[in-house]
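Hi R.,

Here's the chain you asked about this morning:
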Amino acid sequence: MITIDTLSPRLLDARYAVRGPIVNRAQQLEERGRTVIYCNIGNPQALQQRPLTYLRQLLSLVEYPELLRRAETERLYPADIVRRARTILAQHPPGTGAYSQSPGLPFVRQAVADFITKRDGIPADKGHIILTDGASKGVQAVITALLRSPADGFMIPIPQYPLYSASLTLYGGARIGYFLDEDHGWQLDESILTRSIQDAKKRGINPRGVVVINPGNPTGAVLSAENIGMIIRFAKTHGLAIIADEVYQENIYDQHLPFWSFAKIMAETGERDVTLFSLHSVSKGFLGECGHRGGYVEFRNIPDDVLAQFVKLQSISLCANLVGQLATYMMVAPPQQGEESYAGYISEKEAILHDLKAKAEILGNGINGIKGMSVTVPHGAMYAFVRFELPGGKDVAHMRAAEREAYEEERDSAYCLALLEETGICVVPGSGFGQKPGTFHFRTTFLPPRAEIEGLVAKLKTFHERYTHDMSVA
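And here is the predicted structure, written out as tokens:
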């Protein structure tokens, strides 16, 4: 019989904090009748966000074409949705139960290219687009392709989304952490990037790429065009590829902070020597279609023979799931003005984004009113990375790094577990994302309904005051 000792050590070492022990405990409490507010993961529809009517109506017709005739004769759905369903089935007659080409359905990849061109005002080539089972599979494909030995590594932000650290552990690569600048809205600092890569090289690590998440997860920060330009120049100087995780590009709540894609800034600067992998997904934005697992990778500045290897890698899994591919199509090719479904689509989209903006402000302003807590009010994405203070504790100044990390992880995990047990609020300890030594954070979403967010802030204040008081007395 296989035992835990006979499993891959890479699997055993991999950690994915957003679904870790605290979430397991939350599920146990829920099974016992406790009410749990799940703020641990960006899963909008699990927290009462309604799916967009356009997407679900169109998918229903494609999944069950027998509905098409009824939809036409009985006016079940808007006429433009019926027409689009027929167009989809004409371009892929076998329907959703059949494989597509390995890179994905050609008309969907063309729609993605058109979306990028419209968004950025730059040319895009469907031949340089591969459809994936969510952005995560795109990330893992890039890491798989670029890692040649355990000495190869990727620069990943601290704090970071644990997909990156876990995937590097699974595939045998090295992590090169670089700290985001919390005091300046979580932007990237070139001097910090330079120190990180120099330190990695001294440790015998060969840097292969740099990961940038924009808008940020878990920080909610939106990068400026200048900051992105700096990162591109840095990548060129050090011979790095860029993985641009841009899945939250629709989640920006400040009109003074537009989304700038890496592709656009790269095209404007004329940079042709830095390879760029840009990722997008149907799971975030205002769609929140996490369960459909749709997304894409766009490749820029990559030779044809290298691109062919990525297509081969995708072919090992045959292709991305068809419903996810079609959800991606619906994300990049929404209803147009003049079509019957347009007004409803825009109304639902704006309502979701307006609600997210309001909840980000309620959460951010409320937390900043709690003594011993602070947060940069999120301008983007779906999360806040909340900083909190804990009294007492050991002197960590003379601890070795691994010892200090374990000790601080024990403290912030204990805090988050106590928060769950006492209030039913499920958040993720900052140690699961990475944080500066001597600081404590947790990541929370602001996806629950507005009334729950307001109640969450009140519960958090009461809990934090009680918890820190008890620690001080002890």
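One quick note: The first strand starts at residue 37 and ends at 38.

Cheers,
M.
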